[in-house]
Amino acid sequence: MNKSKSGKNDNVSNNDNNINNDNNINNINNNRYDSQPEFHTISNYPKSGGQRSFKQSQSFHEPKNLGARVTLSETKTFSEKAREHWTPERIKKVTSGKKYPILPSEGAELLRALGLLNADASMSADAVRKYIQINHMLLLLEPYFLELCERFPTVRVLDAGCGSSFLTFLLAWCFRNRWKKSAHILGVDSNEKLIQKSRTTAQELGLSDVLKFECANLQEFLWDTTYTKCFEAEAKRPNAVVALHACDTATDIALAIGIAQKADFLGVAPCCQAELARKWAKLSGENFTGAFAPVFANPNLRREIAAHLTDTLRMLLMRGVGYEVTITEFVPSQHSPKNRLMTAVRRGNFHKESQVAYTDLKASLGGQSIALEDLLAAGGGSVAIDSPTDATTKPSI
Ligand SMILES: C[S@@+](CC[C@H](N)C(=O)[O-])C[C@H]1O[C@@H](n2cnc3c(N)ncnc32)[C@H](O)[C@@H]1O
Predict the structure, then answer these.
(1) Which of 119, 111, 115, 103 shows the shortest CA–CA distance to 12?
(2) Partners of 345 in the beta sheet?
């Protein structure tokens, strides 16, 4: 750490906005990340520290000044620069001493390519937040992926609504450098520009054998044909389907794809769950008189409560079709309301009580279905929620 004459820490980077300044790194950690997130089940989910507007919450996962990717040819010695820059003291300040899967001293080229490291190997304040967020997420997902690595010679992963593909790339990096296992990871998004950018980045990083990207609307996406086309291999089911902040019902589509494909593991961080709120607004306009009428009539309560209940209904549907579901926070709730991670492991035994609980809860909420129910019903007998208990199906993980 450099010291100025005044005794204060110097900002090593030329860019004043960088939080390469060690004091700023401390501030971020002290304010937000000084402890591991407490993980809560949905039944004791904590109240958020304060209400945020929809606009504020939207900016959480895609900070505006991130993702300005660079070509790696400009920085041949970038890894060395990063190793020099990221002293154990600096790493500790960013990670608060936690064992993050990707350290900036080790995954420098990847982090640079994703726009998370500056040219001088420092990290901007926004990048530190994103870096911490994705590492927390990876820490939570890692045990599931390690289990898949043990069971399958090549782990097949679908990232549905991959967007800028931070997680997609970090997963590929972990498979290659940390878990040292073979993987086929397919990122799908309807945004052509982002898909093109991710393809270029994968080539530059030498990850294009592990990582493929396809531009498609998830509603029309076909796993089998796309997988065969991209990896030139016989189609087999995805072992994992992940969807991070896939907007509104895109999360339901991702879950439905995973369930229809009998994926061994599902991991979603839902976002903008607006479907039920829209339906409740309509019911309110039609003078709905049930117990939830006061909620339906208030836009703020309607939006907030619909988001929580959408995830509750998703959880019940997933349990009803044979998944063991866990709901946790992946970053502390004061940082963002979009911090819920739903993980689901396929056990294969349909849980009758959850099917009944779904029907009861839906009835008490005015009888409106969520997209996942409609998609599962359209998916045929194997995934329809009223499938008979399948006690003979072996747990798949
Ligand atoms: C908020 S971004 C999240 C991106 C990324 N998963 C992340 O966490 O950084 C949501 C992404 O989902 C994509 N998306 C939403 N609905 C989709 C659909 N029906 N089919 C394909 N992509 C979709 C959007 O294009 C967008 O890139």
Answers:
(1) 119
(2) 265, 324
**Nearest ligand 1 atom, CA 216:** 21
Pairing of strands 340-346, 240-247: unpaired
> Which of 57, 42, 37, 379 lies closest to 247, judged by CA?
57
Q: Where are the alpha helices (DSSP H) in the chain?
A: 22-32, 54-58, 78-85, 88-95, 108-113, 125-151, 166-173, 192-204, 223-231, 250-260, 275-285, 293-296, 299-320, 352-364, 371-378
What residue ranges of the chain have pLDDT lower than 70?
1-76, 333-337, 380-397
Are 253 and 375 in contact by the 8 Å Cβ rule? The answer is: yes
With tokens 């945004």, the residue in question is 191
Give CA–CA dist 291/295, Å, rounded. Answer: 9
**Whose structure tokens read 């995830």?**
311
Distance (Å, whole) CA 235 – CA 27: 48
Structural contact between residues 288 and 264, judged by C-beta atoms closer than 8 angstroms: no
* Pocket mutation for ligand 1, best pick of 245, 271, 273, 372 (most atoms within 8 Å of C-beta): 245
Distance CA 223, CA 200 (A): 22
Please give the model's pTM, rounded to 2 decimal places: 0.81
pLDDT tens digits, one per residue of 141-181: 999 999 999 999 999 999 999 999 999 999 999 999 999 99
Phi-psi region of 366 (alpha: psi -120 to 50; beta: other; left: phi over 0): left
Contacts of 38 (CB under 8 A, 6+ apart): 46, 329, 332
CB 75 within 8 A of CB 111: no
Q: For residues 44 and 61, give the distance between their C-alpha atoms in angstroms, rounded to a whole number.
A: 24
* Phi, psi (rounded to 5 degrees) for 18: -70, 145
Ligand 1 neighbours, Cβ below 6 Å, are: 61-62, 161-164, 166-167, 189-191, 194, 217-219, 244-247, 250, 253
Q: Determine the Cα angle at 130 with ends 125 and 133, to 5°.
A: 125
pLDDT of residue 351: 95
What's residue 302's pLDDT?
A: 96
One-letter amino acid identity for 17?
Answer: N
Q: Which pLDDT value is given to residue 133?
A: 86
